Amino acid sequence: MSTSANTIPVVEMKNIVKRFGTITALKKVDFRVDRAQVMALVGDNGAGKSTLIKILTGIYPPNGGEIYFEGKLVQINSPRDARDLGIETCYQDLALVNLMSISRNFFLGRELVHQVGPIHWLKISDMNALTRSALADVGIQIRSPGDRVGSLSGGERQSIAIGRAVHFGAKLLILDEPTSALSVAETRKVLKYIENAKARGLPVIFITHNVHHVYMMADAYTIIRHGEKVGTYQRGELSENDIADLITGQRER
Predict the structure, then answer these.
(1) What is the CA radius of gyration of the chain?
(2) 160 touches 135 (CB < 8 A)
(3) C-alpha distances in angstroms, 38 versus 18, 131, 141?
(4) Where do the domains of the chain lie, and which CATH numbers do they carry?
(5) Per residue in 177-202, pLDDT tens?
(6) What is the 3-state secondary structure of the chain?
(7) Lesser CB count within 10 Å: N end or C end of the chain?
(8) Rounded distance, CA 241 to CA 87, Å?
(9) Alpha carbon distance 38, 221 (integer Å)
(10) What is the b/e burial string over 185-200, where b = at least 16 CB atoms within 10 angstroms of the residue's CB?
């Protein structure tokens, strides 16, 4: 019997091993994300969650294991390989340029240009209009696409990064601690943007150590401790206290 395309996970990592010299950072970790799912990846500092994601995004090569993307075995040797597959990552520093406008940041590396002989002119008006429209499509309102990114709040900056990933056809969105250092109001907005991305069918990996946000947002959560997978749990299986206890080791699997 053939497997329905809808049941094939967007990404599946099997038996991932990562060593740094004599230190084993990941010990045969399994991790999968299904379609239209918010999967939280949680663990204490140094648990290995960032290392796992850096392998998925081509920053680190694994020492063992396999990665499947949309059911196909893949080799991700660089961040460009990951982006070519449709994996977009919003890191804590967001990779935005403060002195550039919102629209310039939105199209960074994908600028719309008009060529006259050897000269390339940026289509600023077109980029401004498309930026405003694309962000509105995912529920993000901005004052002006010409505003400098450096003038935006942390939550607004997160929204630009999320909207950019959605607009350019990401197949998997990875958010690295997206609510850290944000106010309560801005955190609510970012969580709403994540809900909007999921509603559009985009699977999201939500990396965080905030148990409350995991409990509130995630459809499922994978917990890592000391480089090993503790388990994957579905929404409602555990209480917030249970999740916290599994992260810290006060409770076993």
Answers:
(1) 19
(2) yes
(3) 25, 25, 23
(4) 1-86+172-253 (3.40.50.300), 99-170 (no CATH)
(5) 887 777 888 888 888 888 888 888 88
(6) CCCCHHHCCCEEEEEEEEEECCEEEEEEEEEEECCCCEEEEECCCCCCHHHHHHHHCCCCCCCEEEEEECCEEECCCCHHHHHHHCEEEECCCCCCCCCCEHHHHHCCCCCCEEEECCEEEECHHHHHHHHHHHHHHCCCCCCCCCCEHHHCCHHHHHHHHHHHHHHCCCCEEEEECCCCCCCHHHHHHHHHHHHHHHHCCCCEEEEECCHHHHHHHCCEEEEEECCEEEEEEECCCCCHHHHHHHHHCCCCC
(7) N
(8) 32
(9) 8
(10) ebbebbbebbebbbee
For 241, the token pair is 């206290």
Tell me which amino acid residue 188 is. R
Report the distance separating Cα 218 and Cα 37, nearest Å.
8
List pLDDT tens digits, range 197-236: 888 888 999 998 888 888 888 999 999 999 999 999 999 8
241 contacts 61 by C-beta, under 8 angstroms: no
Q: What is the pTM of this model?
A: 0.84
